[in-house]
Amino acid sequence: MKKKLLVGLVTGLFLAGMVGVASADVIASFEMGGGNPFYDDYDIFIGVGDISSPDWIVQLAWDHTGGGSTDPEGHFGSVDITSQFLMTGGQTWWVHADDNWGINSSYIQSFTIDTGSIVYSSPDTPVYVPDYQDRYAYINVPTQNPVPEPATMLLFGAGLAGLVGLRRQQGKK
């Protein structure tokens, strides 16, 4: 009886530990740079759209997969842009870079998106923007390891407990 309790305790601790270690944070970042560091002369807009919009100088797309609805946190410089991100599965979002002064000067800005559950995919795409000095824009999404599902971990733990029981039976023979 003592060994059964010990096996159950070890299996339970193993399952709790494995699920607690799992992490699904996903961070997507967008960055623009180049030109004179003293002026900020461009606007960034983010939204669902497509590349056919005639006013947009630059569009960069990224898709998220995973379904469901998530409101990620977003910041552009020090401005909170969380309200612009209302994600539902299968959408394509675009970044619009607009030179609002027509001057070749701007500084590096970035925003991050951390949903904790949605998976993003995007190419790393440098883009030249007219009226800028060596402008570039890209979305960089770090790769993430898949998170084990709790049911899978439970099945794995039950399998381990079964192997221990089988080993004990063979030891008694």
TrEMBL record:
Domain Ice-binding protein C-terminal: start-end pairs: 146-168
Keyword terms of this UniProt record: Signal
Signal peptide residue numbers: 1-24
Entry-linked InterPro entries: Ice-binding_C (IPR013424)
Keyword Repeat: no
Pfam families: PEP-CTERM
NCBIfam families the UniProt entry points to: PEP_CTERM (TIGR02595)
Protein name: Ice-binding protein C-terminal domain-containing protein
Species of the source: Desulfomarina profundi
